[in-house]
Amino acid sequence: MSEPKPAPRKISLPFSLFGLAAAIGIALWAGNHYMRNDASLFYGLAAGLSFGAAFAFGQQIKHHFVPPRARKSSWKVDAAGLSPAKLAAQAARRIDVEFDELEIRTTVRGVRREGIAWNDLSDITIRISEGALPQPQWIIAGRVGDDVKGVLVPNDAEGLDALTEAFKARLPGFSDDRTYQSVIAAMSALEGSFAIWKRPTA
Fold first, then answer.
1. Residue 143: its pLDDT value, please?
2. Going by C-beta distance under 8 Å and a sequence separation of 6 or more, which residues neighbour residue 14?
3. Mean pLDDT of the 114-124 span
4. Angle ∠(97,103,109) on CA atoms, nearest 5
């Protein structure tokens, strides 16, 4: 399981102001020499690095007065910011999950996609898919003979909340605090795979 990343250190406001002033001063000095010395590579690099440092210090100062928004750790992906075209495409390929006493299965527009029997289920992992909008996906799997079988459930799938409640009732150890903390860590991540549950060995 991935270790949580430590929070970045916050630079004090006086130091940020001093750094901004120094970076702007060096950038102006280097830019002036750059123009006077036939586009010297050294002064050009110094000016570029100084402007970059000035931008970084400016961001630090901005964050002192306007703190950056924290990333939501909701179990569901917020689709409010998606364009109508993306929402339509998402709906067309939307994967739902349902279950009964025998199996868990996914469907696309009401048509069965894949399934796994409760008795075969032995492992649950959350994987964060790559893309502009990182999407957690639940990998619900188990070994059937020599093959690995399972279902892939997007975190915004209809029916996932009911399924997780069924996990708590039917899977030994799933309702433990350790499992809950693993799910929260996965939902707060931007990438990676997180082991959520594994069936205890007999």
1. 85
2. none
3. 94
4. 30
The token pair at 42 is 């050294």
- Look at residue 70 and tell me whether its pLDDT is greater than 90: no
Residue keyed to tokens 């996914």: 106
Residue 157 one-letter amino acid = A
Give the 3-state secondary structure of the chain.
Answer: CCCCCCCCCCCCHHHHHHHHHHHHHHHHHHHHHHHHCCCCHHHHHHHHHHHHHHHHHHHHHHHHHCCCCCCCCCCCCCCCCCCHHHHHHHHHCCEEEEECCCEEEEEECCEEEEEEEHHHCCEEEEEEECCCCCEEEEEEEEEECCEEEEEEEECCCCCHHHHHHHHHHHCCCCCCHHHHHHHHHHHCCCCEEEEEEECCCC
